[in-house]
Amino acid sequence: MTPVTTTFNLINNQGWITMKLLRETIRRILLENQRFFDNILDLICIQQTVAHINQALELAITMKYIYKLKTSTNEQYDYRTHHWNFHIRHRGFLDTLIQRMQELAIQTSGRSPVTLSQPVRETGVFTITLKKYKPRTS
User: Fold this and answer.
1) Burial class (CB in 10 A: 0-12, 13-18, 19+), 40
2) Number of folded domains in the chain?
3) pTM for this model (two decimals)
C-alpha cells in the first residue's frame, strides 16, 4: 500500500507543494519565530538595562509582536523605576514573555529588578518595570 500525498496549488501558481513540505515549512517558520522571541527576551531578562530593554521592545514593535509602547520613569529617594507599557499583538510572544518572566522570578527568588505586570480586566496593557538603585555615596 502506498501512502497518499495531498497537494495544494500555490496561490502564486509557481507549482505544487506536498502536505509534508507544507508541514515542514510551517514548523520551520514557527521555530524561527520562537528564536526571535528568545532573542528579544534575552535582552530584557538577561541584560536588564534600560538601553537593552528599549532595544528589545523597539525590535518587538518592528516585528509586530507589540504596539502602543509608552515609557515613563519615576524618581525616588534611593532608586529610579522605569516603566514600559504596551499592548500585545502576537499571542506566541505573550506566552513566551510570561514564561520567561516567571522563570526569572523563580531563579532570583522574586528579587529580580525586572518584573512584568499583566493587565487588570480589559485594559490589555502589559508593563515591564525595571528598578535601578542609585549608588550610595559615603
Assistant:
1) buried
2) 1
3) 0.73
With CA atoms as reference, report the closest residue to 128 among 119, 110, 115: 115
Q: How confident is the model at residue 133 (pLDDT cuts 50, 70, 90)?
A: confident
Give residue 121's domain range. Answer: 16-133
81 beta partners: 74, 131
Q: How many helical (H) and strand (E) elements, i.e. helices and strands, does the chain have?
A: 3, 6
Cα 15 from Cα 33, distance rounded (Å): 26
Q: How far apart are CA 63 and CA 51, in angstroms?
A: 18
Please answer whether residues 83 and 72 qualify as being in contact, where contact means their C-beta atoms are separated by less than 8 angstroms: yes
| Cell numbers standing for residue 51 | 538601553
Query: 27: which 3 cell numbers?
Result: 514548523
Whether 7 is covered by a domain: the verdict is no
